[in-house]
Amino acid sequence: MREFIHQLPKAELHLHIEGTFEPELMFEIGRRNGVKLRFKSVDEVRKAYAFTDLQSFLDIYYEGAQVLLKEQDFYDLTWAYLKKASEQNVCHTEIFFDPQTHTDRGVPFETVIKGIHGAMADAEAKLGITSKLILCFLRHLSAEAAMETLEQALPYKEWIIGVGLDSSEVGHPPKKFAAVFKRAEEEGFLIVAHAGEEGPPEYIWQALKTLNVRRIDHGVRSPEDPELVKYLVEHQIPLTVCPLSNIKLCVFDRIEDHNIKEMLDMGIKVTVNSDDPAYFGGYMDENFIAIQEGLHLSREDLYQLSKNAFEASFLTPDEKQKRIDELDTFMKAHS
Fold it and tell me: Which residue among the candidates 144, 197, 202, 262 is catalytic per the annotation?
């Protein structure tokens, strides 16, 4: 089954590029830029990855990002992730980036996006992995700051497929950013948002009704609201679920307690993703393996999860069908 999972064609739709920052690369870039970390070794960094909630993770996540200063740094970070993803048979990925994490430190928006975009273009040419970029606003900052970031992004519209909302969820409801997302949609960006990870189902409703999202990132608290479940199934709103992240951040105590199989059986279009794999102990293969073994998923379950991701992606209809045909061919060969 592990070999089946490894070979399974996959799409990843919930991945923060800053969250792929492995400690080895963090130290290498830190040395290159003369930025000292408070950690003395890679092992010490990994030992610090003992999180109790979303905020305890975000504190160290933002700290690690401090070493990213130059275009080459963002290129190297993105290339490392895309290479790893390609090795795990991820053939398409949609990457979040948090420009405010960097622009608030004085790093120009242009520096960030040029480095990321350059690696994405090279990975498609050299590795055959396609990718799209989604700009996320930090919800613990103001709506005004988000609007400023959107303005900075407009000259690079052709490189950005959509906008999203991440960072500390509780106390920062989606409706806080209604005006920003309305403007983003008018500019042609597709809309997604984190909701229902630590926040209540009401945040998912707000993302759907106020922000007009195409898909919900996380959404694991959806089953608490039967009307919400009915709406998600009826409208086939995708959820980009991140199993190992949910365990690491104590959303669920154990992988055996995770509700992704329950939601799949309800008819919700759930997908599997790695979120911040350098911090949460696993990329796509590891997430699929964890839920397969913990929840006793069948090959048909794994196929459906992968198919859901291609259908939920922002690929064109023809590109989606091409990837699903490849997935179907794979399944016939392994039936």
Answer: 197
